[in-house]
Specification:
By secondary structure, the protein is an alpha+beta fold. It has 2 domains: 4-128, PAS domain (Beta-Lactamase); 156-210, Winged helix-like DNA-binding domain superfamily/Winged helix DNA-binding domain (Arc Repressor Mutant, subunit A), CATH 1.10.10. It is built from 9 helices and 5 strands, in the order H-E-E-H-H-H-H-E-E-E-H-H-H-H. It has a 5-stranded antiparallel β-sheet. The longest helix has 15 residues, at 182-196.
Length: 214
């Protein structure tokens, strides 16, 4: 099975990752196409300088003291939220941003992976702020409890599709491998995303790796 980095390199969603010092460590080709910034100009640079993201009301969001990393330090996974990010022509793109924490190779640290997609979120920037103690992820209407030694929330068929998705297989290839209709595969993928509370295939796979579902 390919690594999470290999999958994120070839996904159609824009993906970038930052380390604890807020420097970009990963930038895939889809991100370059979406924002018009080559990986060579992004990797190694402070993410706030490269992205210059703003909230939907125009306030600066990407700053030195990023609230996303603040939430990471507190052990919470931020929800999906909307941002305006400028492209190479200076046009503000309204994008949905999902955050995933993945282990950095060999150093025991976490990388903050950002997944950019055009389907807009229902959450706002305020959802990134720490929640009161005692309010669990499930009570906030968040993602299904998975990993950490618990049983997978997937049905056997959904688990098969999730593993094929993590291998980078397309829906058409999955339908051929499993001997089921293409529309059935797509329905399963939608149900998997609904269970996990994610919005794209890249986010689905990142979540699956993060929670040991694949």
């Amino acid at each position: 099975m390919p690594s999470i980095a290999e999958f994120l390199h070839r996904t159609v969603d824009g993906v970038f990752a930052v380390d604890g010092s807020q420097r970009i460590t990963f930038w895939n080709s889809a991100c370059s196409q979406l924002l018009g910034i080559p990986a060579a100009e992004a990797v190694g640079q402070p993410c706030d300088d490269v992205l210059a993201g703003r909230t939907l009301v125009g306030d600066r969001f990407c700053e030195k003291e990023c609230c996303v990393l603040g939430v990471i330090d507190g052990g919470e996974e931020p929800k999906t939220f909307d941002l305006h990010l400028p492209n190479a022509n200076g046009k503000a793109l309204k994008l949905s941003v999902s955050i995933m924490l993945v282990p950095s190779r060999g150093n025991g640290q976490w990388s903050c992976v950002h997944l950019l997609h055009r389907d807009h979120a229902e959450s706002s920037i305020e959802d990134l702020l720490p929640q009161p103690e005692g309010l669990s992820e499930n009570k906030r209407g968040g993602r299904a409890d998975a990993g950490n030694g618990s049983e997978s929330p997937m049905t056997p068929r959904q688990q098969e599709i999730l593993e094929l998705l993590a291998e980078g297989k397309s829906a058409r290839v999955m339908s051929q491998v499993l001997g089921i209709r293409l529309v059935t595969v797509r329905n399963h993928i939608q149900h998997i995303q609904a269970k996990l509370g994610v919005h794209s295939q890249a986010e689905t796979v990142a979540y699956a790796y993060r929670h040991n579902l694949v």
